Amino acid sequence: MKDASEQVRVNDILLGPLERPALKWLAAHSPAWMTPDRYTALGILGAFIILLGYVLSRYDLAFFWLASFGFFVNWLGDSLDGSLARYRHIERPVYGFYIDHVVDAFTETVIFVGLGLSPFVNFDIAMLVLVAYLMMSVLAYVRTCVVGEFRISYGKLGPTEARVLAVLLNTAMFFFGKQFWPVNLGAFGQLVITPYDLVVAAIGLVLFSIFLSTSIREGLRLAKENR
């Protein structure tokens, strides 16, 4: 088992060349009164803005833009809490590890509940994808403790790319609106889905596939090492 201070953070994402310099600049120019904990609170606020935007989009599709703004606020807070701590050399590895992961689990639950309450994504599908996301989170945390590597990205994709995809989905839902497709299930009746359901379900399937393949591969490797 690895100590929190010995963990290696792996975040090799597609948008990394843009994100990393931006976070360094924002950390360097953050006001003195802004602390890592306040950035964490800002990330939580962003999640609730997303929730509010999705719920209100049932009454006016323009609120999808509020949800998209919430993703920006969530990214700002979630990304800058650790970046600021590292910039100011005030890291608290054990506390940071605990708070970061607990808050992530909470905010992702808030976000997916909001997505399921939006007018065009089935709540059940949103919850299934939330389960897949939390399974990936558990895998990341367990691997961090076992091998000392906190892997955020898989296949050049990470939380930042997920937020960008969510904003693109919000944009599509705003511009294309209602796209309900009836599916005849024979004796089981008729199911009504949307193309947005298919996109969200595909994301969940990808997450579950990564979880399954990584879990099996890591388990086989550890079995050889621990004979």
List the helices and strands and how they pair.
Blueprint: E1 8-10, H1 16-28, H2 36-56, H3 64-88, H4 93-117, H5 123-147, E2 149-151, H6 159-176, E3 181-184, E4 190-193, H7 195-225
Parallel strand pairs: 1-2
Antiparallel strand pairs: 3-4
Helix pairs in contact: 1-3, 2-3, 2-4, 3-6, 4-5, 5-7
β-strand percent reads 5-15%
Compute the CA-based radius of gyration.
Answer: 19 Å
CATH class category name: Mainly Alpha
What strand order characterises the main sheet?
1-2
Q: What is the tally of helical segments?
A: 7
List low-pLDDT spans: none
* Record field, number of beta strands: 4
Q: What is the fold-level CATH name, i.e. the topology? A: Four Helix Bundle (Hemerythrin (Met), subunit A)
H/E series, N to C?
EHHHHHEHEEH
Please estimate the helix content: 55-70%
Distance between the termini: 16 Å
The largest pleated sheet is described as: 2 strands, parallel
Shape: globular
Structural classification: mainly alpha
Mean pLDDT: 89
CATH superfamily: CDP-alcohol phosphotransferase transmembrane (TM) domain
